[in-house]
Specification:
Length: 413
């Protein structure tokens, strides 16, 4: 029959692959024998082994409100084989920890792909007969809805691709849209440890939609990459990043705690819980718990330094100007982030603006981050509105929240 997605053209697929690579966050990249593990030198590579139950799977996400099908998804294993040739990539995705450790010892580089699927995320609805219409607001344009329904009815039936696993009729691991754990499955942790013990050049790739705690094992692996749910060409994007055709361009949109105990208390039986603003990285900061990986963090394949920074007023806006220097061996991009902190302890540090810059090796680029006053406004709980910022504010020009090398500026509003 006709292609149900005729708009999925090569240009769109290339864009999806590029976006996936730019979203991946490199959390660790330690040197082995004087050189960081990533990027892998494909020309010098003899054998790369892929392990983990997700290494051979098309893993598209939580199957909830964002549920989508990729018609021809590329697995991590397939993407890596396409990049360097099938003969040089060993399929160890079905091996247990003991067998994987033995196989990893013979590889130049070991890649372990672990994390979550929709079964772990708990977002999907297992019973297709459940009527959720009452949860959505009523439309203000019934005619538009009718036209969409006619369009949908006119399309040929969509055959679900073989790589999309059937949704169970009952939730298997979690319910109510909450994960039961922020850690990997014990079998995945055993696998990571076994492979890392056998191969000093082990790369762990995490797949999942949010934070995955790794502090119990991440010191045993030199390279750690959070790839999220990277879409239909996840394997191609992963290969681009691991072999250096693209840099991992993502920065964390959250802080990953070192331990669940550092998060706000959670009572699953409570009728109501009030966290106010003290959750996420604001809670970690207020409680004095240093995250394993902070908000805004992400490594690349070169190094950067914020050489200078200054703040000025431009009408109602604050503008932070400065210079970003690439001090490393190759060109790349970095994200300059501006955080604002007020003297009031009940007003936590917040992200006020950011800018991504491409800088060649050895080069310097000026940057400008504009901060409109609304980004510094404080909520008035009595008047149910926002009050303009006044008084002294400290700005931190950094590469992530809590950056020890941040440039600090003080301005009066």
């Amino acid at each position: 029959g006709p292609d149900p997605l005729p708009s999925v053209e090569p240009a769109h697929r290339r864009l999806a692959r590029t976006v996936a690579a730019r979203s991946m966050v490199l959390l660790r990249n330690q040197p082995v024998e004087g050189r960081p593990v990533l990027p892998v030198d494909g020309d010098a590579l003899g054998c790369l082994a892929v392990f983990g139950r997700l290494g051979g799977a098309v893993n598209l996400g939580d199957a909830g409100s964002s549920d989508v099908y990729a018609l021809d998804g590329v697995t991590p294993l397939a993407g890596l084989r396409e990049a360097v040739g099938e003969a040089r990539v060993v399929d160890g995705t079905g091996l247990d920890a003991e067998a994987a450790g033995a196989a990893a010892a013979d590889a130049d580089v070991a890649v372990v792909v672990v994390g979550y699927t929709y079964e772990d995320e708990g977002e999907y609805i297992g019973d297709p007969g459940v009527d959720l219409s009452g949860l959505f607001p009523k439309t203000d344009d019934p005619e538009l809805v009718a036209r969409w329904q006619e369009e949908i009815a006119s399309l040929p039936p969509l055959t679900v691709p073989d790589h999309v696993t059937p949704r169970p009729a009952a939730v298997t691991y979690t319910s109510g849209g909450d994960r039961s754990s922020l850690r990997l499955r014990p079998a995945d942790v055993d696998l990571v440890r076994a492979v890392a013990a056998a191969n000093p050049r082990t790369v762990v790739v995490l797949e999942g939609g949010s934070a995955i705690l790794s502090a119990e094992w991440d010191s045993t692996v030199p390279a750690l990459l959070h790839s999220w749910y990277a879409g239909g060409d996840a394997g191609g994007a992963l290969a681009d990043v691991l072999f250096g055709a693209a840099e991992p361009g993502g920065r964390l949109p959250l802080s990953i705690p070192a331990d669940e105990a550092h998060l706000p208390e959670f009572d699953a039986e409570a009728d109501a819980v009030v966290y106010d603003r003290w959750h996420g990285w604001w809670h970690l900061e207020r409680s004095g718990h240093r995250p394993a990986y902070p908000f805004g963090f992400g490594l690349g394949y070169t190094t950067f330094s914020i050489e200078e920074a200054a703040a000025r007023r431009d009408g109602p806006d604050l503008v932070v100007d400065g210079t970003l220097a690439n001090t490393g061996p190759r060109g790349g991009s970095d994200v300059v982030q501006v955080y604002a902190r007020f003297a009031d302890p009940e007003a936590p540090r917040r992200l006020a603006g950011f800018a991504r810059l491409e800088v060649p090796s050895g080069g310097r680029r000026p940057f400008e981050v504009r901060v409109p006053p609304v980004r510094l406004a404080r909520r008035d709980p009595v008047g149910h509105g926002w009050t303009p910022p006044t008084g002294e504010v400290e700005l931190e020009v950094a590469r992530h929240v809590g950056d020890p090398s941040a440039r600090r500026l003080t301005v009066v509003l």
